[in-house]
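#struct-help
A.M.: can someone run this one for me? Single chain, 257 residues.
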Amino acid sequence: MFKWNPKLITSLKYYPRRQFLRDIKAGAIVAVIAFPLSFALAIASGMSPVTGLYSAIVGGFLVSLFGGSKVNIGGATAATVMTVSTIVAREGAAGLAVASILAGIFLVLFGALKAGYLLKFIPRTITLGFTAAIGMGIFSGQIKGFLGLRMGDLPVRTVDKLMASGAALGTVHLPTLAVGLLALAVLFLMPKISGKVPPSLTAILAATAAAHGLNLPWRRSGASTGSFPRMSRLRNCLRSTTTWWPGWFRNPLRWQC
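D.P.: on it. Structure tokens below:
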């Protein structure tokens, strides 16, 4: 029988002040890391950075509110970048919204049917291959930004990304490369210096300080940062709820608020 019991309800029954202070520290660190990470994953997926910020805020909040574990960290993940980028390239943002809603419905159904045990029948080779393919896809998409290459939009396929980046190697931007190497050095060396400070957080701070404090030349990545919707537009969307659902179901790929 399906039983839903959010861990937040049981955790708050005994929640000491000491644990609250620890959670504040952990939440601040995760937020600082998730902020640029959500931007980067949104760009890698073919969306605007502000879309990644929305996803990190809403997804992280809902996972913590309704999740069944008190040690979950909900937010942007690199595991779906390749799938999302393919959907965006073929169907656009509206197609991504439809796919996300359908994926959520299937996940709820799988949970209600207790279908998680089926995962044990998936061979480990498939899991490793899938993970390696995701890593290669993300790596191929970051060469342009890491080297500061002067080139247009990247193709969707991994092999095409590698070929396009290789053809533009003559346009390497040395200051951009220097900042990237600094971030990598911090990531590798920080665990040996101190195990209490997250290496990724230190790398972000070091790279930011190097880029701004040393007044290095910089170049835009070419991605539009997007903008937050005005409150008037949000109110109009809420007021038009009666026409939203019929219009969405008739043609979800073309409907806009």
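A.M.: thanks! Confidence is low (pLDDT under 50) at residues 221-225.
D.P.: also worth noting: The two ends are 39 Å apart (CA to CA).
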